[in-house]
């Protein structure tokens, strides 16, 4: 098994994760004390900018820049929300952090809330993460007891009431504007953008700082150890580490914290212990099903936002899914097409109809009932719906199919020619997620 030495974000605790004493022993809440007693919000923003930290929720937006925007917004009523809505297939790193580092997340949230000068602060946790939510509440109660949360924090006069909010159990609810809508009692549907980004128009229409769980877990470590410490690993433009969720055809699936820029091969071989049964890699989704796949000849690509973008794909929230050569790519693609169909919120017609029609055509081809015309229609539909909609769901659904046909067209054509799936039968997952 691989071990990452310092600088790393995730701390080894001598005790259960919710035990505040175990966290205090590794320097826990020191950064928060520093913010309460010494650092101004502006100094915190400067340190974050110097660290080069980029959001780990999928888009890789510079965190210091986002915090600056909210702090210095002309409208002075601000809110803060931690996004723990995680619901993408193959991504489970936030769940791991909620489970293993609840105090570190709480500390990150306190720093974010104070820096953004938030009037109210929330941790929005996926409704299905029941155990994690309970652990988080337990840790929060301890932090309150020790005076780190609540009224007059550490005698400073600062008040922060951090609340755990039970979120919606859907993929779209993780999209920040849909999340904020659902927090206000409305359906979890993304807002049309621009102009309404949360930094300008968030909760209750006020500037709102939204950050991902992993982004926030980085904050206390950066402020405690310094920006220079943080930039010792990773790449120049993507410093630090990333929590990779590794799943699919690997011997040791799991969450691995590794430097940004590690190659896909290193991740699969060193962390994942290679592919089971001596089989070969056919494809890898480096950033979950919404980004293009890569093939076995691209395993030396670096896993960071910029390198993967340059290669025509993306890191997303680093849900790495490995596919071996025993897998039917049409069936694999259909599985994710069904996911997108089930998760479309239905608000935007191109997404609602597009995801249904993509999944229908994929089902037909996988069942051996497809024609060459269906394959053409599939690609034409991808072209029509890509880039439409208030969020990127339908774009992800199109990119998935386009990438699969581009890289594995021969498999689609074989299904059409043989009038059946050439791979051994397996139940097709048509579950609506
Ligand atoms: C369909 C969809 C689902 C998303 N789900 C999540 C999620 O579960 N967690 C998350 O942090 N970001 C998610 N995002 C990204 C958020 O909208 C947002 O960019 C992120 O929370 C910002 O945090 P960061 O700057 O710390 O990365 C999703 C985006 C889309 C389009």
From TrEMBL:
UniProt-listed InterPro entries: NADH-UbQ_OxRdtase_51kDa_CS, Nuo51_FMN-bd, Nuo51_FMN-bd_sf, Nuop51_4Fe4S-bd, Nuop51_4Fe4S-bd_sf, Soluble_ligand-bd
Keywords (A to Z) from UniProt: 4Fe-4S, Iron, Iron-sulfur, Metal-binding, Oxidoreductase
Domain NADH-ubiquinone oxidoreductase 51kDa subunit iron-sulphur binding residues, every copy: 330-375
Gene3D superfamilies on file: 3.10.20.600, 6.10.250.1450, NADH-ubiquinone oxidoreductase 51kDa subunit (3.40.50.11540), NADH-ubiquinone oxidoreductase 51kDa subunit, iron-sulphur binding domain (1.20.1440.230)
Keyword Metal-binding: yes
Domain of life: Bacteria
EC number(s) from the headed UniProt entry: 1.6.5.11
GO MF annotations, alphabetized: 4 iron, 4 sulfur cluster binding; FMN binding; metal ion binding; NADH dehydrogenase (ubiquinone) activity; oxidoreductase activity
Family: Belongs to the complex I 51 kDa subunit family.
UniProt xrefs under PANTHER family: NADH-QUINONE OXIDOREDUCTASE SUBUNIT F
UniProt name for this protein: NADH-quinone oxidoreductase subunit F 2
Organism: Nitrospira japonica
């Amino acid at each position: 098994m691989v071990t990452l030495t310092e600088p790393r974000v995730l701390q080894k605790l001598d005790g259960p994760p919710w035990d505040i004493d175990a966290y205090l022993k590794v320097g826990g809440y020191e950064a928060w004390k520093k913010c309460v007693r010494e650092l101004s919000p502006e100094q915190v923003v400067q340190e974050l900018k110097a660290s080069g930290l980029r959001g780990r929720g999928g888009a890789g937006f510079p965190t210091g820049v986002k915090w600056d925007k909210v702090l210095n917004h002309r409208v002075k009523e601000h809110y803060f929300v931690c996004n723990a809505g995680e619901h993408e297939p193959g991504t489970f790193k936030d769940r791991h952090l909620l489970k293993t580092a609840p105090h570190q997340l709480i500390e990150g949230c306190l720093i974010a809330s104070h820096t953004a000068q938030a009037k109210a602060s929330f941790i929005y946790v996926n409704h299905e993460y029941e155990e994690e939510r309970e652990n988080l509440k337990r840790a929060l109660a301890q932090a309150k007891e020790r005076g780190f949360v609540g009224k007059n924090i550490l005698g400073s006069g600062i008040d922060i009431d951090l609340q755990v909010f039970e979120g919606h159990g859907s993929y779209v609810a993780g999209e920040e504007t849909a999340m904020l809508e659902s927090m206000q009692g409305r359906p979890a549907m993304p807002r049309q953008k621009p102009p309404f980004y949360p930094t300008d128009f968030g909760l209750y229409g006020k500037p709102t700082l939204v950050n991902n769980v992993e982004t926030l877990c980085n904050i206390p470590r950066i402020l405690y150890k310094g920006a220079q410490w943080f930039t010792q690993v990773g790449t120049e433009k993507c410093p630090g580490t990333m929590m990779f969720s590794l799943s699919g055809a690997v011997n040791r699936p799991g969450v691995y914290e590794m430097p940004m820029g590690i190659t896909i091969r290193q991740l699969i071989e060193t962390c994942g212990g290679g592919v089971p049964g001596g089989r070969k890699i056919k494809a890898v989704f480096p950033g979950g099903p919404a980004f293009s796949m890569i093939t076995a000849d691209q395993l030396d690509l670096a896993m960071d936002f910029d390198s993967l973008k340059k290669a025509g794909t993306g890191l997303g929230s680093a849900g790495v899914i490995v596919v071996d050569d025993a897998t039917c790519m049409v069936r694999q693609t259909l599985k994710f097409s069904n996911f997108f169909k089930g998760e479309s919120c239905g608000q935007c017609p191109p997404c609602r109809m597009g995801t249904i029609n993509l999944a229908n055509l994929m089902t037909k081809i996988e069942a051996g009932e497809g024609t060459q015309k269906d394959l053409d229609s599939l690609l034409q539909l991808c072209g029509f719906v890509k880039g439409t909609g208030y969020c990127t769901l339908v774009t992800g659904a199109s990119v998935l199919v386009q990438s699969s046909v581009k890289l594995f067209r021969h498999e689609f054509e074989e299904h059409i020619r043989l009038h059946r799936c050439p791979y051994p039968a397996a139940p097709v997952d048509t579950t609506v997620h």
